[in-house]
Design goal:
Blueprint: E1 3-7, E2 17-22, H1 31-40, H2 42-48, E3 59-63, E4 71-76, H3 87-104, E5 109-112, H4 124-141, E6 147-152, H5 162-192, H6 200-221, H7 223-231, H8 237-248, H9 252-258, H10 263-271, H11 279-288, H12 293-302, H13 312-322, H14 328-337
Parallel strand pairs: 1-6, 2-4, 2-5, 5-6
Antiparallel strand pairs: 3-4
């Protein structure tokens, strides 16, 4: 763990291994296959000639040659023929076997295309679901920590269901309109106030400076009051996270895997009472723990964040939590479709 969906050119990925959606001959072709062969150079084709082809669902590994990736894992996806010929099992096998080859080489990172979703005709929404479920299951069961990317060339590579997309778009529009109406009201109120007399600003600034200096002197003169205030500091994000894990009866591993969070990042958080995470990391843990919207807002506040109706990301997260939907993969698919940052991963 973790698993991330990104929009990129797979030949440009700086990872240990990239996966090639190849044909049975392994001798190059169109689409992703042709792009990888062109980027890698003639050495890749020469090595592929020695492999004797590849069966559908299987995976074989070669060097990366001129690619940024050290390795290329070649797998052959099924041609879609209505779903009655074991296509789902074969497609899942492509992902599992590719991950096995990556683990055998000690890869810490691997990037996949959406296998069989091009000229092989596999329905994109079903292909995406199989990719996500298979990768997630493998990472949950594996002892080998690996960062896995699913690389999509554009957001049209898959779609959120039309009904869900329309519902969330309406949810966003309603809250955007409400937020912007509030801002317009505040701006109008501010502009309607009479301006300060021209000579007043200097005296106001002087009074403010005097007040600030007086407060500073008082604080310096009474350090015990400040010390008492600091001793009453609220529960930190880390403390709340660990408390909620215990209350839910979860293990640490169950929590960070469900949150799509890297084990090393979780270890850093656990060892630092005052660790300051990114907002998406806080939300990932809130989803893993299936916190209510109020609990989620509380956890965000512990880390210095809030949910805002000025942010599409925040509104989408609020929509899913308020509807009791905590599946990070489903939420990330929606965030991707709306061009928003995704949840989980590394806290960079």
């Amino acid at each position: 763990m973790p698993f991330q969906i990104i929009r990129n050119d797979i030949t440009q990925m700086h990872v240990d291994a990239i996966v090639n959606a190849a044909n049975n001959s392994l001798l190059g072709g169109g689409g992703v296959d042709g792009a990888i062969h062109r980027a890698a150079g003639p050495g890749l084709l020469a090595e592929c000639r020695t492999l004797g082809g590849c069966e559908t669902g299987e995976a074989k590994i070669t060097n990366g040659y001129a690619l940024f990736a050290r390795w290329v894992i070649h797998t052959v996806g099924p041609v879609w023929s209505g779903g009655r010929n074991g296509e789902a099992e074969l497609l899942a096998a492509c992902y599992r076997n590719s991950l096995e080859r990556a683990a055998e080489k000690g890869c810490d990172s691997v990037a996949f295309p959406l296998i069989s979703s091009g000229v092989y005709g596999y329905p994109k929404e079903e292909a995406l679901w199989i990719a996500e479920e298979t990768i997630k299951a493998y990472l949950d069961e594996s002892d080998h920590d690996m960062l896995v990317f699913l690389v999509l060339f554009d957001k049209e590579s898959f779609s959120v269901s039309e009904e869900r997309f329309a519902e969330i778009q309406s949810y966003i529009d309603d809250r955007y309109a409400e937020e912007h109406a509030n801002l317009r009201t505040m701006n109008a109120a501010a502009s309607s106030k009479a301006p300060f007399p021209a000579g007043l600003f200097g005296s106001i600034k002087q009074k403010q400076a005097s007040a600030l200096c007086g407060s500073a002197v008082s604080a310096m003169a009474a350090p015990s009051g400040l010390e008492r205030a600091l001793n009453q500091i609220d529960e930190s994000f880390t403390e709340m996270l660990l408390r909620k894990i215990d209350e839910r009866g979860m293990t640490d591993a169950q929590c960070y895997k469900k949150a799509n969070i890297d084990r090393k990042l979780f270890s850093k958080i656990r060892s630092d009472k005052y660790y300051h995470p990114k907002k998406a990391t806080v939300i990932a843990f809130a989803l893993s723990l299936e916190l209510s919207l109020d609990e989620t807002k509380d956890m965000l506040m512990k880390a210095g964040f809030a949910l805002s109706h000025s942010s599409k990301f925040d509104i989408i997260v609020e929509y899913f939590i308020s509807h009791g939907i905590y599946d990070i993969m489903e939420i990330n698919n929606t965030l991707f479709a709306f061009d928003q940052m995704l949840i989980g991963g590394y806290d960079k």
